Amino acid sequence: SQTAERLVLFADRLICEPGQAIDGQLLYPLAPLRLAAFRALVPGRTIEFQMALCSPAILVPALAAQSDASGTSMTGQEARALSWLSTVTEIIRTNPGIHMTLWCNEDTPLIWPDVLRAISAYRGPALLDGDNDLLSALLTDTGYTSLARSLIARPPVSAADRRNRISTALEAHARPGSLEMDVTLPGWTTEDIEAITERYIADCAEIARLPGVRFISP
To answer: What is the pLDDT of residue 182?
Structure first.
């Protein structure tokens, strides 16, 4: 009996099942057609997709940890060819006029309020209830309390100021293990991980310039 202004849906397997996340050198090869199918469910409506990207150096080991996932035998040399740019470019080609908001998952602690506002479309000045939820999970109680008091006593003068202060707090007061990610697989070398990371950073810079993409970055 009510008219919704905005409907937000979440699904961690929206664009692919974990076992189908890697096909040869392709990341999430089913994503373009799956997003097209979801858009077709509500014709004539404005559909937006918000998604965090993740470095293949972190993503492949995470998939390998799932018994039914692909990529468990991928070598470091093979992983160097994985490209988010190819995936996002194909999504746009298959879905003309699509609106996407993307960000690097590694940056999420610094940009969480921006992510919440992108998802909710809230543009007002007020704080949102969830603005600090992620920080409370990543910081020790002492570190979180200290940061919260600092932000209240001396409000950030800009988004960049807030991110810098959060970054400093995370460096000094992160919960043990909260920021550590396993990026090792048998046979992977330090050179492989560095090459994968460099390509990921370059891909994200290109993706941020694609039509229809809003890229949130620190």
So the answer is: 63
Q: Which helix (H) or strand (E) holds 148?
A: helix 141-153
208/218 Cα distance (integer angstroms): 13
DSSP state of 15: S
Distance CA 158, CA 206 (A): 26
- The three-state secondary structure class of 22 is strand
Convert the pLDDT of each residue in 103-135 to its tens digit: 999 998 889 889 999 999 988 887 777 777 888
Query: Mapping DSSP to helix (H, G, I), strand (E, B) and coil, where does residue 99 land?
Result: strand
CA–CA separation, 47 and 204 (whole Å): 22
Instruction: Write a three-state SS string for 155-203.
Output: CCCCHHHHHHHHHHHHHHHECCCCCCCCCCCCCCCHHHHHHHHHHHHHH
* Gyration radius from the chain CA atoms: 19
* Residue 218: predicted pLDDT: 86
Tens-digit pLDDT profile for residues 38-84? 999 988 888 899 999 999 998 888 887 775 545 457 888 888 999 99
- Between the two ends of the chain, the Cα-to-Cα distance in Å is 41
φ/ψ of residue 44, rounded to 5: 85, -5
CA-based nearest residue to 114, from 97, 134, 99: 134
